[in-house]
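We were asked to recover a plausible sequence for a given structure. The inputs and outputs are reproduced exactly as logged, with field labels preserved.

PROBLEM: sequence recovery
POSITIONS: 144
GIVEN STRUCTURE:
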């Protein structure tokens, strides 16, 4: 079972956001990347901000590791809330205050008319793109 399916079993978040996890659980069956895998993600309460205070949201994040020593190289997060989908780097594996969202980019505004399944697909696409960029960066480091 993947982390998204496990999360659905013990759902702790507003029901409004459940379709995001459902879609990610579906997509985990044919995951589009090898690293990080669907078991390498975490789902948490959203980072506190104006857009999440009213109706909650979800924060989904993962660590990308350095090939050289298998340490955490960067932690990436995606927050879904009333504003839409925002993605960017997190300062640590334990996300905290609203300042965490300062470096996030609005990838898909909620008012564009897409469904939460569309938001989940965009979220996964963003992680895939960032993972590929990270892999290319790691490759360049190895080549010196």
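RECOVERED SEQUENCE:
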């Amino acid at each position: 079972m993947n982390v998204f399916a496990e999360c659905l079993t013990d759902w702790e978040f507003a029901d409004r956001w459940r379709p995001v996890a459902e879609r990610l659980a579906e997509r985990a069956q044919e995951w589009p990347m090898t690293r990080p895998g669907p078991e390498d993600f975490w789902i948490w309460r959203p980072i506190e901000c104006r857009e999440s205070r009213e109706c909650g949201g979800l924060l989904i994040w993962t660590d990308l590791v350095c090939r050289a020593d298998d340490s955490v190289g960067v932690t990436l997060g995606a927050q879904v809330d009333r504003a839409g989908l925002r993605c960017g780097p997190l300062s640590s594996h334990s996300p905290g205050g609203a300042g965490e969202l300062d470096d996030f980019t609005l990838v898909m505004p909620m008012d564009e008319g897409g469904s939460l399944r569309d938001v989940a697909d965009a979220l996964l696409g963003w992680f895939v793109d960032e993972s590929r960029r990270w892999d290319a960066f790691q490759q360049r480091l190895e080549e010196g």
